[in-house]
Amino acid sequence: MRTFAILRHPQPRRAAAAITAAVLVVSLAGCGTPSDTQESEATQSAGTTEYPLKLDTPFGSTTLEEAPERVVAIGDLDDALALGVVPVGSFKPAGDAEELYDYEQDALEEAKSTSPVKRIDPLFDPYAELDYEAIAELDPDVILAASYWDLEKSYGTLSEIAPVVALPKGTDSNWENRHELVAQALDREQKGKDNVQAVEDAFAEAREENPEFADLTLNYAVVYPTQVTYMSVPDTEASWFFTQLGFQPGPEHGKFGKEYPKDVVSEEQTSLLDADIVVIGYHSLLEDGQREKFEDSSLFKSLPAVKNGTYIPLPKGHDSSIPQPGVLSSLDDLEAVLPLLEETAPKAS
Fold first, then answer.
1. I need a labelling partner for 109 at 20 to 30 A (CA). Which of 29, 128, 232, 304 fits?
2. Which residues of 64-93 are buried (b: 16+ CB within 10 A; e: fewer)?
3. Would you call 43 helix, strand, or coil by DSSP?
C-alpha cells in the first residue's frame, strides 16, 4: 500500500489516520490485487453525468456533448489531478512554479496509469495574457476555468475553442463548489464529492486533536513584491485554512477588507498584525533581501508574537497555496503547517 506520497515531508503522526484515509478516497493510494484495482478504477470511471451538459456561466453558455478526454486547465490543475484526470495543458502551479510540486507530480503519476493523456504540455504562465492560439492547438474537448480570475475578458474567445467550465451566476466561489462542478463536467461526480469529504475529514480530525486552537487568535499575511496583504478577513478563501483549524482572526481584523486596497497592510499598520500567533508567507517572486527587510523592521520585531516566539514563517511554496485552497494543496498544506502550529500553540496559551 502506498502511504501519503503526495506530501513534501514525512507524515505527522497525529494527522496520519485522517490524511491517509483522505488520500485513499481521492485515489492517490493503491492497494489490493491488480484485479481489485482495475475493478475500482472501472467503477470510478463509470460516471453519472448526463450529456449533453449545458455549462452556464455569468458570461454565456456552452454545451459539453460528451465526457471530455482532452482537458485544458486554466487554474484548475489541482481539481483535475485530484479527480485522476491528466490535462493536455495547464497553468503553472501556484506561485508560478516552473515544475509541479511533489504532491502534484505524485498525483500526476497516479492519474497517468489510467489516463490516455500521459503528460501536461505546456504549462502556461498564469501572469501573462492567455495564449489562445496555443490553447487551440492542444485541441481541447473542454476548458476548466472555474477558478480563473479574468474570465469576463476571455470567455468569448475561449468558448470558441471549446466548452468552458465556470461557476454559474449566483454560486459562491469556494473550492468545494469549484471542485464538484469540475467533477460533474469530467463525469466524476461521486469522486468529487468524496474528495471534498476527505479534506473536510482531515481538517476535522486536526481540530479534534488540537482543541486549544479555538482559544487562540491568528493573523495571516503574505509579503508580495509590491505589498503586504492581510489574509485573515473572515469568510474568505484566504482565511479558510486557519479558520478550519479553529483559530480566530486577530483583534484588529476589522481594519482590513477582502479586496484591494483594503487588504493592504501599510508599514504603519504593521502593529495591527499582532495576534496570539502571527503567520507570514513570503511570495516566490520576492527579490533578494525583501524578506529580510520585512523581518528586520523595527515595527515587525516589536510585535509581541515575534518577541514571544509565536511568529511562524510559512515553508516555501505554501504562501500561494493556502490562500487558494484545493483538494491536493490543502492536504499538503495541512501536512506541512500543522506541526508548526502544534509546536507554537503552547507558547501562545
1. 128
2. beebbebbbbbbbbbbbbbbbbbbbbbbbb
3. helix
Among residues 295, 296, 290, 252, the alpha carbon closest in space to that of 271 is found at 252
What are 88's three cell numbers?
493536455
Give CATH superfamily name and number for 48-188: Nitrogenase molybdenum iron protein domain (3.40.50.1980)
How far is the C-alpha of 11 from the C-alpha of 202, rounded, in Å? 13
Q: Is the dihedral of CA 280, 283, 284, 285 positive or negative?
A: negative
DSSP code of 130? Answer: P
Answer whether 276's CB lies under 8 Å from 312's CB.
no
What nine digits make up the cell of 134?
496555443
pTM of the model: 0.87
Q: What is the mean pLDDT of residues 174-179?
A: 97
Instruction: Give the closest residue to 309 by CA, choosing from 344, 336, 337.
Output: 344
CA angle 336, 104, 332 (to 5 degrees): 20
pLDDT digits (tens, 9 = 90+) for 117-136: 999 987 888 888 999 999 99
Return the CATH number of the domain spanning residue range 212-348: 3.40.50.1980
The boundaries of every CATH 3.40.50.1980 domain in the chain are 48-188, 212-348
Distances (CA, A) of 15 to 23, 164, 178, 210, 342: 12, 37, 26, 11, 11
Quote the cell numbers at residue 93. Answer: 502551479
- The pLDDT tens digits for 70-104 are 999 998 999 999 999 999 999 988 656 778 889 99
Cβ–Cβ under 8 Å, residues 99 and 145: no
